[in-house]
Each structure stands twice: as C-alpha cells, then as structure tokens.
Amino acid sequence: MLRWLGQGLLGAGLLPTSSWAIPGVDEPPVPGRPRPLVLPRFEETTLGNGLRVIVAPRPGLPLVTMALHLGTGALADPPGQTGLADLTHELRTRGALHRGRALDATDLARRVEALGSGLHSATNWRGSALSLTVATSHLDTAAELLADVIRRPTLPARELARVRERAIDGLKFEQADPSALAGLIARRVAWGRSAYAQPQTRNSLERIHHADVLAQHQRQARPHGASLVFTGDISLPQALLLARRHWGDWRAHGPTPTAPPPQVADPTLPSRVLLDLPGAGQSGVVVLAPMPVGIDDPQRRIAQVAAEVLGGSYSARINQEVRIKRGLSYGASAGLNLYPEGGVLVTSTQTSHRSAAEVEQVMREEILRLAREAPTPTELAARQAGLVGGFARQLDTTAGLASLVIDRVERQRPLNEVGDVVPAVLAVTAQEVQDFAARYWHTAQLRTVIVGDLEAAGTALSRDGAWVGSARQLRLDAATLR
C-alpha cells in the first residue's frame, strides 16, 4: 500500500525526485566533453617503377592496414561486359603463386587467417583495392602475400565460374527485393545512358570469359598509377623497406590503359517510374533529385549537410514524418551519390503497398520544404555533429583511415584535404542549406521510382504520366528498361 501511495505522489509531482535519483541510472548521464579530433599526417614517395607509397603513421597500437589501389575501375568495363573489373578483382583473391607454389582459394584464405586477418577486395568506378589489417609482427608475411595476390594471381577458370554464379545469384535476390530494385532503377532514371546507370546483369556477366579476365588483369595490374597505402604503427622507412622488397621489381606488361571519358547524364525515362512486382511483400519507394554538384565541387559540404538534415539519422526530417509521426515505415533515409561529373540526392524507404502513394508525397514534400524552412540551430548542430562523428569514427581505425586515403588517391586529390573536412562541415549555415535546396532540389528536379505490387497499391497510386512496367519484362541493361 505504501508503495502504491509513493508512486501516486510521484506521478502527481508532489514528491521531490532529484534527491532520490541516481546519476546514470534514474537520470541519463551528462554528455562528456567532445574528444579532440586527431588528424593524421601523411608521408609519401614513389618507387622507381612508378608505384606510389603512402604512409599515415599512428604509433601506439601495434596494428597496420595495408592496401593496394589499382587505378582502373568499372568505368573501363567494355560495352556489354559490365562486371569485368569486379569479377577480375574478386578472382585475384581465389589463388596466387606464393614462393613457387600455387595456392588455391582455400590455401590462400588459410594463410591470411593465420595472420589474424582477412583479405578485403573492392571495385569502384575508377579503381580497385585489396587490403588487409595485421599485427606489426606479421607485416612482412602479409606484404608478401598481398604482393603475390596482385602480381601473381592464378585467376583459375573454375573459380571464375563460381564467382560468376554467386554474382548472378546475388542479382536474382536483388531483383526480387523491391527496395534494391528501386535503387537500381533510380540510377537509370538519374543517369540514363551513362555508364553510371549500367548495372551488372546475368547477360553481361555471362559474356565475360576467362580470356577477358586475363586481359583485364594485364591492363589493370601495373605499378604506374597504383598506390600502396600503409596506415597504423609504421614509419615511412619501414614501409619503403617492405615496398622495395616485395614490389620494387614489379613491371607492367602491355600498353597503358586510357582514362575513361567523363560521364554525362542522359536521362531517357519520365520523372515517375512504377514497376509492378507481383507478390512483393512491400513497396520500395525512392525519391531522387539529380544535381550538377559533384564530389569535388566546393558546394559538396553544403549538399552533405542538407542531405543529413533530410534523412541522415533517426530524428531527421524524413524519418520524423514517415516513421515517427505516421508509422508508415520502419525507417526512411536520405543520402548523396556523388561523382566527379555531378550528384544525386536519394531518399528511400519501404512501406505497405497501399501507403506507397502517401509516402511518395510525404518524401517529396519534405525535400521541397527544406527550400522554404531552413534547419533550426538545434537541428543544424545535431546533423553537423552526426557528420563529424561519422568522420571521426572512420579516422579511429587503421582500416577506416586507409579508405580515406584511397578515396583521395582515386579522386586525385591532395591527401591533406582530410584536415579540411570538419571545418568545412561546421562552417555550413542554415541559410546556405535552404538556398542550396531551393536552387537544386525543386519540383522540376524530383524523380520517383516505386517498385511493388501495383494492384495491391490500388488507385491511390496515380499512373498519370508515369512509366509503368512489369518486372517480368524489365531489362535493366536497356536505357528505356524495355
């Protein structure tokens, strides 16, 4: 009885609570002071064969990430063979000549795992990278393995078949997922006939033969234009010793590949695309806005903050409206796809078929509202803190730091630009965000892609002026999707 009475008085505000509260238990802990951001310093040199060696020393913790970046990526894929650079790079991790012995995929994986590491491969539009993180005591062995994987891969034909089949299985899964499929179509809506819009398909992967992979490796694997990156507990002299020992006699074979031409957006579809995916559990909704601001444009920091205001976190505007206020989705987000030639704002979510039309309207309205209503001081500070915090977390690990270096290498930007990121983000004002949205994200720029069961969506989802098609007849490798 006494317990009940106490709860009632507390609820009525008649008993003091602060003297009873335990900090960190009954009350949330007070936020700590922001930790100072420790920016790396970069050292670099170039070997006689043209290989660029970059070091970002971080003494203390005995870990080092090594990454080898090759300066040719997916933009160089021949017409009709989208995925060649990706398959070739993945195949490098499936076998190599090591100390005169051919290691298959299992042998190679075991040797890397014995170092307490994993071999990570990634292919982007303008380059490919292989990386691994090891204790400093294993550096020499790891550097030897990484060199063999790049310089002496076996590229076995049987592994090509496995890698290709796995990629095709992934495409099947992706094309059955309404959100993933909407994202693929959104690239086509934004870029049209450009290479940025061209996805890997079953047909393009099946056109890639073993001879194509061998030729691609010869074109891509060359020291000139490649960069060897070390981040962590290592100095430039130590890195140079490893680089010269394992990479110093590396030579190129065949002609130097030509740089891919700049890409130009060439849209071929209407501003609304509706794709019928019968039997889908929900609808994927994407609202996007192409813009001329690219990854090296001075306005990119404003664009990043603006996108963060719209959908960079749980409390951002789009998620507030779609999930928190209306309960139409488990989450809605916004982000930027930035390229040298331009960029695209992409907002996306997944919802029930019958609410797809409402979600589309809400997302469009939130983008347009940013041009009318600048972020409040609290809102702006929170979004900037999110961007700065994400950047700081990336700097906190040797692998994250290596990825930042590779990003600058691939974009041919000065490495010391890393130090400009935080000041540039914090310098963005609310008025700049509003003006940016008004200039680039207005009604005429907005595009919509909805993938789902159109019959279940009902008449609320207007077909007027839209491209309407069926997933059964969809051709992702065609600019018109048919």
From TrEMBL:
The lineage of its organism: Bacteria, Pseudomonadati, Pseudomonadota, Betaproteobacteria, Neisseriales. Residues 58-166 form the Peptidase M16 N-terminal domain. This is Multidrug transporter. GO terms for molecular function: metal ion binding. InterPro entries: Metalloenz_LuxS/M16, MPP/UQCRC_Complex, Pept_M16_N, Peptidase_M16_C. Residues 209-385 form the Peptidase M16 C-terminal domain. Gene3D superfamilies: Metalloenzyme, LuxS/M16 peptidase-like. SUPFAM superfamilies: LuxS/MPP-like metallohydrolase. Pfam families: Peptidase_M16, Peptidase_M16_C. It comes from the Bacteria.
